[in-house]
Write a structure and sequence with these properties.
single chain, 327 residues, four-stranded antiparallel sheet, 14 helices, 8 strands, elongated, binds zinc ion
């Protein structure tokens, strides 16, 4: 387990922006496993310290732990958002400090007595050593930073430091968004979660039925993936976004295929194996031979084979790495 590591070296000397984006995307989204919000906390602490580094790109554990403790104090004590993180070591230590000192729960970290701040930072730092530095290091495949528990030094990869500075605003928005989303889910704050869900699916259609009818009318009535025969009005007939909706965020005929329920359910939010890319490109060529279909989707006028291929490749670059095959 990577979180048990006491020292982690940088695994790559050279990193492209594309590689960094890709790793970030995977870490931020649900594609990386998170039992707690720690990874977001460390990313936020890193952002806060982008300009505190020395010439080698190093910051001390104390600097990072200070930022991290501030974030968690305000989250857990001040905002009382401890659910889901309850029982986590950082939360327990902070709750102990708060109750031992009889500190009112609305006190923010900045208002704490410096000796209490120091005690909190020290305790949180020890938790970070066992649960945080190694975990994010593992998630980023050792490409973003090096760390050493003995010297208590954390070293940014040069390219990552440059990247985070260059896209800092975007980084902050992304980290905050995903962290908030996780906290909201854990705390069952119905209104905000509801709102985020709404924002995310604002462009989503409520039904793909019209597309289903068009596809059934013009194409072979069988599952695009497994070939099972399909029929109109059958509940087994589904419409699938070849490139997942969560990535394309739109419903276009050229990205929709008829499938059986089994394939659609098991494919879910995944990318199909590349062989199907050729099939869908071919299917779309015949789609274009029916100019009347433009009434169902004006975007057909702008469809090009390259678009499909690029989308396929970009989706993988954006973390859709789980490639699906019909069973
Ligand atoms: Zn099927």
């Amino acid at each position: 387990m990577s979180h048990k590591l006491k020292v982690g070296e940088l695994k790559a000397l050279y990193l492209t922006e594309e590689q960094i984006w890709r790793t970030f995307t995977i870490v931020l989204t649900a594609r990386s496993k998170k039992s707690a919000t720690y990874k977001f906390g460390l990313l936020k602490a890193m952002v806060e310290n982008l300009y505190q580094v020395d010439e080698q790109g190093q910051v001390t554990y104390d600097q990072l732990a200070y930022s991290f403790t501030k974030i968690y104090w305000n989250l857990v004590i001040h905002h009382q958002l401890e659910q889901g993180t309850r029982g986590s070591a950082v939360v327990n230590r902070l709750l102990d400090i708060q109750s031992q000192g009889n500190i009112p729960r609305d006190v923010t970290f900045d208002k704490l007595d410096p000796t209490i701040q120091l005690r909190a930072v020290k305790q949180v730092k020890s938790v970070m050593k066992t649960n945080v530095f190694g975990a994010l290091y593992g998630d980023t495949h050792g490409a973003f930073y090096a760390f050493d528990h003995k010297t208590e030094q954390f070293q940014f990869h040069k390219a990552v430091l440059t990247f985070m500075r260059k896209y800092q605003r975007l980084m902050v928005d992304l980290i905050n968004y995903h962290m908030a989303k996780m906290i909201e889910q854990l705390n069952e704050v119905p209104n905000v979660h509801y709102l985020l869900d709404k924002v995310e699916s604002i462009a989503k259609r409520s039904t793909l039925k019209p597309f289903e009818n068009v596809l059934l009318q013009y194409f072979e009535q069988s599952c695009f993936y497994c070939g099972r025969s399909l029929a109109k009005g059958d509940v087994q007939t589904h419409v699938d976004h070849f490139i997942p909706w969560s990535f394309v965020q739109s419903d276009h005929l050229w990205n929709l295929v008829l499938t059986c329920r089994r394939c659609n359910t098991s494919k879910n939010d995944k990318i199909p194996v590349r062989d199907y890319l050729d099939d869908v490109v071919e299917r779309n060529e015949s789609l274009l031979t029916y100019p009347e279909l433009v009434v169902h989707d004006r975007d057909l006028l702008h469809y090009k084979e390259e678009k499909m291929v690029h989308l396929y490749e970009y989706s993988i670059q954006n973390g859709y790495e789980d490639i699906w095959l019909p069973s």
